[in-house]
C-alpha cells in the first residue's frame, strides 16, 4: 500500500557542473530512500543520523528549478515527497588549443576506435551501484594540486569540440597520482583521446577518471584506498604537454571533480 503523503523539502541550490550532497534526517522505520533525478533513480545510504546521497548536475543542464520525487520506504509503505533542485548557470570560457592533426581529423580506424571507447565509457558511467565504497572526504589526486579548465568550450586546431569535462592539474611526467577516494577500478588501459587512463567507481554512480598517465599501477577490479597511488602523470593521448586530467562523472553527469572534494564527509 502506498502512502501519498507529499512533503516539500527545502530547495537545494546547485550550479551547472557540480556534485551536490543531499541529506534527510533519519526517522524511525525508514528502510530505504531514493530520488528520481534526470530520469535516473539514485539511492541514499544510511550514515549515522541521516540518509544521504550525491547528485550530479551536468555542465550543460539548463538553469532553473527542477522538482524531483523522493521515495521514502517506511515501515513497508512508500512516502512520496518532493525535492526542488535550483540549478544556477555558469559562464565557461573558450580555450583554443593546437594538437597533432590525427586527434582532430580522425582516420576511419581511429574514428571506429574512439566511438567504441565512448560506448564503453557510457556503459560504465550509466551504472549506479546502491552502495558507497567510501567513508572519508574526497581528496585531490596530486597533493596541493590546483585544477583549471573545467567546462571550457574547447577549439582544437580551429574546430569546436565538446566542453572540457575535467580539471587539468599541473604535473611533470612521473608525478605520483592517487585515487581521490576508496573505490573499485573499473577501467585501466590506454584510450585514444585520454591515453593511459584509470577510472574508479566509488559507488552511487560516482566515478573519477585519471588520464594521460605515463604509467598505470592498478588493474581492473582492484579495490583502491583513498590516496593510494594508481599511476604516474604523463602526456599520453591528445595532450599539449605533461599534466593530469582529472575527471568526475556522477550518474554520468559531467561535474567539476573539485566539487566532490567540497562535499566533505
Describe this protein with a few key phrases.
Immunoglobulin-like; six-stranded mixed sheet; 2 domains; eight-stranded antiparallel sheet; mainly beta; disordered N terminus; Glucose Permease (Domain IIA); 265 residues; 8% helix; single chain
Task: Describe the protein.
This protein is mainly β. The protein folds into two domains: 2-88, Immunoglobulin-like, CATH 2.60.40.10; 94-261, Glucose Permease (Domain IIA) (Distorted Sandwich). 8% of the residues lie in helices and 48% in strands. Strands 11, 14, 16, 17, 18, 20, 22 and 23 form an eight-stranded antiparallel beta sheet that branches. Strands 1, 2, 4, 5, 8 and 9 form a six-stranded mixed beta sheet that branches. The protein is globular. The relative contact order is 0.19. Mean pLDDT is 89; it is low at 1-8.
In short:
This protein is mainly beta and 265 residues long.
Uncertain stretches of 5 or more adjacent residues: 1-8
* Series of secondary-structure elements, N-terminal to C-terminal: EEEEEEEEEEHEEEEEEEEEEEEEH
| CATH level-four homologous superfamily name of the largest domain | Glucose Permease (Domain IIA)
Pairing-aware structural class of the strands and helices? mainly beta
The termini sit apart by: 35 Å
Which helices and strands, and how do they pair?
Elements: E1 2-3, E2 12-15, E3 18-25, E4 30-37, E5 40-43, E6 45-47, E7 50-57, E8 64-74, E9 77-88, E10 94-97, H1 108-125, E11 147-148, E12 153-156, E13 159-163, E14 166-170, E15 176-178, E16 183-191, E17 195-203, E18 206-213, E19 215-216, E20 223-224, E21 229-232, E22 243-250, E23 253-255, H2 258-261
Parallel strand pairs: 1-9, 2-9, 10-12
Antiparallel strand pairs: 3-7, 4-5, 4-8, 6-7, 8-9, 11-14, 12-13, 14-22, 15-21, 16-17, 16-20, 17-18, 18-22, 19-21, 22-23
Amino acid at each position: 500500500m502506498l502512502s501519498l503523503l507529499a512533503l516539500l523539502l527545502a530547495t537545494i541550490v546547485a550550479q551547472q557542473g557540480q556534485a551536490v550532497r543531499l541529506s534527510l534526517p533519519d526517522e524511525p522505520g525508514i528502510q530505504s530512500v531514493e530520488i528520481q533525478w534526470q530520469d535516473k533513480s539514485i539511492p541514499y545510504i544510511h550514515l549515522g543520523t541521516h540518509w544521504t546521497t550525491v547528485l550530479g548536475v551536468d555542465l550543460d543542464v539548463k538553469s532553473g528549478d527542477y522538482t524531483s520525487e523522493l521515495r521514502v520506504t517506511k515501515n513497508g509503505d512508500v512516502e512520496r515527497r518532493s525535492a526542488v533542485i535550483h540549478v544556477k548557470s555558469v559562464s565557461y570560457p573558450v580555450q583554443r588549443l593546437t594538437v597533432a592533426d590525427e586527434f582532430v581529423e580522425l582516420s576511419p580506424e581511429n574514428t571506429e576506435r574512439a566511438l567504441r571507447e565512448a560506448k564503453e565509457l557510457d556503459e560504465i558511467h550509466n551504472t549506479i551501484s546502491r552502495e558507497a565504497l567510501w567513508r572519508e572526504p574526497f581528496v585531490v589526486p596530486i597533493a596541493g594540486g590546483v585544477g583549471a579548465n573545467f567546462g571550457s568550450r574547447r577549439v582544437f586546431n580551429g574546430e569546436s569540440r565538446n566542453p572540457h569535462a575535467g580539471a587539468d592539474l599541473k604535473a611533470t611526467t612521473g608525478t605520483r597520482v592517487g585515487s581521490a577516494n576508496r573505490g573499485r577500478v573499473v577501467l585501466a588501459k590506454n584510450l585514444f583521446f585520454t591515453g593511459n587512463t584509470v577510472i574508479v567507481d566509488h559507488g552511487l554512480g560516482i566515478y573519477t577518471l585519471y588520464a594521460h598517465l605515463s604509467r598505470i599501477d592498478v588493474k581492473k577490479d582492484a579495490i583502491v584506498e583513498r590516496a593510494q597511488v594508481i599511476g604516474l602523470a604523463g602526456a599520453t593521448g591528445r595532450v599539449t604537454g605533461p599534466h593530469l586530467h582529472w575527471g568526475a562523472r556522477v550518474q554520468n553527469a559531467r561535474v567539476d571533480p573539485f566539487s566532490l572534494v567540497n562535499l566533505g564527509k
